[in-house]
Amino acid sequence: MPTDSNFTGSILVAHPVMGDPNFRRTLIFVSQHHAEEGAMGFVLNRPLGETIAGASGLPEIPVYYGGPVQPGNILLASLQWRENPTLLAFRAFAGRAGDDTVEIEWLPGLRAFAGYSGWSPGQLEGEIAEKTWLVVPPSRDIIEMSRPTDIWKATMRESGPMFHLLSEAPDAPWKN
User: Fold this and answer.
1) pLDDT tens for residues 65-85?
2) What is the residue-wise DSSP string for 18-59?
3) Counting CB atoms within 10 angstroms of each CB, which of 62, 131, 135, 164 has the fewest?
4) Domain residues of the chain, as ranges?
């Protein structure tokens, strides 16, 4: 688990009352965080229902909404849960999907992200202090999520009864 001053490798879980449509009911992997430079991450649970064709032996790669920053750019990354020792392995690839830059050991967990999530220096720390995000350690269920659209509610259930109750509220209760 990261220290209080560095959230690299953490999972940010959007608080149930977050209204920002870019992040409502999302889980974000924080790929890098530096107090002086800000933070960067990727939304993990918003598949776009599209794939990009792999070349040079790469399989088709699922595309996820990564965040509101540069949504027209695609970044390849692999997130893998490893048991011995138990940890999350992450690797981003600078090349395009058709390049030969992805080594075979990184094919499991390979995803394409349209855009990314970014925070200026101090912004993420402020949002966490305001309880906009719950910070949780990565887990196998989150990283290997078999049902991305259900993982936010499952994470809320595990975070306590109040979060579970709030997560069950409809998006627009005044319309009921």
Assistant:
1) 999 999 999 898 988 888 776
2) ---TTTTT-EEEEEEEETTTEEEEEESS-EEEEEE---TT--
3) 131
4) 11-162
